[in-house]
């Protein structure tokens, strides 16, 4: 275990049997020094498995701490050689530099690119799914995500951008989005830059690009179709944020709506209803303000029990597109909430998304 420049962060060597990029989640630990830990380990190709580690601290402050992984549990589960797709980091050129930030506070960002390896289709003819994460202050890691192997099995290339505001690139990077009021601009720009990078590399068909995302990822997917209507041929959005100005009064996280436009929640909350200028800033940052630009067919997936993003958000997008003749449909899941993660629901989300993309891309 080798220390980095951050005193409270260390790099842990991969357990034997793992290969490539992998992700570790701590589930339990004994309180005594030199105790045991239980972790869930996964990578893009393998669902999470449990592993037991024995922590062994060095004899002094300079000696490294090591973790010995047990042969029990599922050691070796990652040593598979028949993975049907390749996952790798994709460096993305940032189109706007932050000159006010010290160099040490600015981290370049990247995207995770997933490509099918057993496809008979030429790389330049493959369809691309742009899959931004939600949050926006979260990230797409190398951990297993069921949608990825499912989409790649159908021949899609999938790019997952960790755009400005994502975690893992330092606090300053988060505030570049959250405190600057650039939501709906800088994050959208970065996600689209990832798509352009894949296209420029000849790894997909530029005429077969779609967007898929939930929550803030749905916000971004809707924005992509509005800001770059000639690029995106279809979208599937799950419980999307469509208009923060109408969401702020009915969500369980009203502070989020203020923070993402760079406004002070406490100050505004003391005034009662949001001031008109704040509501206008929320409206302008939201995809609904640009809905008239959209040409891409949009499938909207809504959890009826969602308290995070009220159900009216998805319906607003559907109604706005339908009013201008854009093909759009809504699927409502009565027993599911913001995550749409129930077993039957998640399965239906994937099948519905795959059918929607294939139909609108005219792929088999």
DSSP, total strands: 14
Strand order of the largest sheet: 7-8-10-9-11-12-13-14
Q: Kindly report the average pLDDT value.
A: 83
What proportion of the residues form beta strands (DSSP E)? 15-25%
**Alpha plus pi helix count:** 10
Structural class of the secondary structure composition?
alpha/beta
Instruction: Tell me the helix content.
Output: 25-40%
Shape: globular
Task: Determine Rg (CA atoms, Å).
Answer: 22 Å
Order of helices and strands: EEEEEEEEEHEHHEHEHHHHEHEH
Point out poorly predicted stretches: 1-11, 95-107
Q: Describe it for me?
A:
It is built from ten helices and 14 strands. The chain has helices at 147-153, 171-178, 186-200, 216-227, 244-247, 254-259, 265-269, 276-285, 312-323, 343-361, and strands at 2-3, 10-11, 23-29, 36-43, 46-56, 66-69, 85-91, 110-116, 128-130, 157-161, 209-214, 232-238, 298-303, 328-333. The chain has an eight-stranded mixed β-sheet with strand order 7-8-10-9-11-12-13-14, with helices on both faces. Strand 9, helix 1 (147-153) and strand 10 (157-161) form a beta-alpha-beta unit. Residues 1-11 and 95-107 have low confidence and may be disordered.
């Amino acid at each position: 275990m080798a220390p980095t420049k951050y005193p409270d962060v260390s790099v842990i060597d991969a357990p034997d049997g793992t290969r490539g990029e992998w992700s570790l989640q701590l589930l339990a630990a004994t309180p005594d020094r030199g105790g045991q830990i239980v972790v869930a380990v996964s990578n893009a190709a393998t669902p999470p498995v449990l592993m037991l580690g024995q922590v062994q601290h060095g004899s002094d402050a300079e000696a490294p701490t090591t973790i010995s992984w047990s042969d029990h549990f599922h050691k070796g589960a990652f040593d598979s050689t028949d993975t049907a797709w390749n996952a790798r980091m994709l460096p993305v050129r940032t189109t706007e530099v932050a000159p006010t930030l010290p160099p040490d506070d600015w981290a370049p960002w990247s995207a995770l690119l997933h490509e099918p390896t057993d496809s008979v289709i030429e790389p330049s003819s493959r369809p691309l799914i742009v899959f931004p994460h939600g949050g926006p202050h979260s990230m797409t890691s190398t951990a297993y995500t069921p949608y990825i192997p499912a989409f790649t099995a159908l021949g899609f290339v999938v790019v997952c951008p960790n755009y400005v505001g994502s975690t893992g690139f330092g606090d300053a990077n988060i505030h570049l989005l959250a405190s600057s009021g650039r939501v709906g601009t800088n994050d959208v720009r970065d996600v689209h830059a990832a798509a352009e990078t894949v296209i420029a590399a000849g790894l997909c068909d530029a005429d077969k690009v779609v967007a898929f995302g939930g929550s803030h990822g749905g916000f971004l997917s809707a924005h992509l179709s509005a800001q770059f209507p000639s690029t995106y041929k279809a979208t599937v959005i799950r419980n999307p944020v469509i208009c923060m100005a109408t969401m702020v009064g009915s969500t369980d996280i009203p502070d989020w709506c203020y923070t993402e436009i760079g406004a002070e929640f406490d100050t505004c909350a003391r005034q009662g209803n949001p001031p008109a200028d704040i509501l206008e800033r929320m409206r302008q940052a939201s995809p609904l303000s640009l809905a008239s630009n959209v040409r891409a067919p949009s499938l909207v997936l809504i959890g009826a029990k969602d308290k995070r993003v009220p159900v009216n958000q998805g319906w607003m997008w559907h109604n706005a597109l339908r009013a201008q003749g854009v093909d759009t449909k809504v699927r409502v899941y009565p027993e599911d909430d913001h995550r749409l993660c129930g077993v039957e629901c998640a399965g239906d989300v994937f099948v519905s998304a795959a059918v929607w993309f294939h139909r609108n891309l005219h792929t088999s």
